[in-house]
Design a protein that fits this description.
Mean pLDDT: 83
Low-confidence stretches: 1-18
Largest sheet: none
Number of strands: 0
Oligomer: single chain
CATH topology: Hypothetical protein af1432
Order of helices and strands: HHHHHHHHHHHH
Number of domains: 1
Distance between the termini: 38 Å
Amino acid sequence: AAPTLQPTRPEVAAAGAIYDLGEEADAVRWMHDEVATHGELPLMEAEAVVRSLAVAMHGDSRMVLPLVQMKEFDQYTTTHSLNVSVLTMALAEHLALPARDVRAFGVAGLLHDLGKVRIPKEILVKPGKLSDAERAVMQRHPVDGARIIIAGDKNLDLAAVVAYEHHIMLDGGGYPKPHFGRGCHHASELVHVCDVYDALRTNRPYREAWESAKTLSYIEERAGTEFEPKVAKAFVEMVRSWDARVATATRHDHGT
């Protein structure tokens, strides 16, 4: 049976926002296994997952924070991919982007970490700081992901660009080091902020998950250096609105 993935935070559950994204999680795990085993990206399944996430995102008026919680840390890449896809689509809608772009950005968010299938598991789940050599291996995943996606389907140019760029900062920091004068694609700017938010909001072997307010403050502080300012501002506005709705729903459920 497909696992039921719960919202990340108790207050979201209290607001009645519990989603069974088990089938989507199973599909993403299967996709990652296919890439790792056969080196082929099953595009139809990726697009089907994004369509399903889009339906879930719009299907419940109480769906405030559409984040799923992993049961074990080694499921991080799967659930993180789902979260980043949903967050990216929500942010694209918040920015009033065309529906076609919203869906394309969602696919890019789902596939942004695909290169991690090439990273040894002992590095991916290491409970502590990586050595310099391990960090160098980890930092190959944007290039590996872009290569896998390009080899898989020529219609996924945008997803390949995002896989390559999602760790590149506005000021040129991050990795891989850009070899071009232009800035990152708009989709990469959206996926970057969603990626960082979800990573910081997740329990890791070496640190506790950050509270939403702390994470949003971090994003605000890094706007203009790590994050594109307008994208960061829109993301913070969107999530603060969600957090306020969760707080209101929680108070209502508790009769306060």
